[in-house]
Every structure is written in C-alpha cells, then in structure tokens.
C-alpha cells in the first residue's frame, strides 16, 4: 500500500532542494527515468529536465519554499494534492494542485500540475 503522505513529503522536499547535485539525486530517486512534469509553464520529460524546472523556480523565487496544502488524497497509483509557494513562514504567493501517477515501483511516472493562484 502506498503511503501517499510520505510520497508528497518527498516531492515537496525535492522542490525545496536548492543544491543542484542533491536535487538531481532526489529527482532520480522520486521519478522514473522517463518521468514527466507538465503544468501551464512547463512540459518536460526526464530527470535532467525536471531538475532544471525546479532550479528555474528557485532562480525566479529565491528564498521561497513549497509547503503542502490542505488536500491530499490517493487511490491505487494516483495521488492528488495541493501546495503553496511563498516566503518561509509567510503566506503563499502561488498555490496549485498536482496529480501524480505512480509507476509500479512506486516512483512518479507523471505529474500534471495546475496553478490556482500566481503572483502578479
């Protein structure tokens, strides 16, 4: 049985990782080799591309952190959850909703992201 809360915790931690080498290892451990990430601003496949998207967020919003939102639900190989992005300890300036599809080995095969609130 999948521990969806633990998976989302690892996912959020990966998005919060600022060190490129540590982030690359986290992405490799969390996503399948051909895993994909798609949202309104990105559509990428593979570990390097996913790591680059995460790095670009850190460049655009230095010092901001991702936090889990109030929704977390899963069944089978699907999990959906909300998140926020903002200054540490502050109100999120961006909020979203992601759906992850897991591979049989429990790693992420695909993430579909939706942006519900974005900074101006």
From TrEMBL:
Gene3D superfamilies: 3.10.450.50. InterPro entries: NTF2-like_dom_sf, SnoaL-like. Residues 8-111 form the SnoaL-like domain. SUPFAM superfamilies: NTF2-like. This is SnoaL-like domain-containing protein. The lineage of its organism: Bacteria, Bacillati, Actinomycetota, Actinomycetes, Streptosporangiales.
């Amino acid at each position: 049985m999948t521990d969806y809360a633990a998976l989302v915790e690892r996912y959020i931690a990966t998005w919060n990782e600022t060190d490129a080498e540590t982030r690359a290892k986290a992405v490799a451990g969390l996503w399948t080799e051909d895993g994909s990430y798609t949202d309104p601003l990105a559509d990428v496949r593979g570990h390097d591309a996913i790591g680059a998207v995460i790095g670009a967020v850190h460049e655009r919003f230095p010092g901001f952190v991702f936090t889990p939102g109030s929704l977390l639900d899963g069944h089978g190989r699907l999990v959906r959850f909300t998140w926020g992005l903002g200054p540490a300890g502050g109100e999120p300036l961006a909020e979203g909703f992601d759906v992850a599809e897991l591979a049989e080995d429990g790693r992420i095969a695909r993430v579909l992201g939706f942006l519900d609130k974005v900074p101006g």
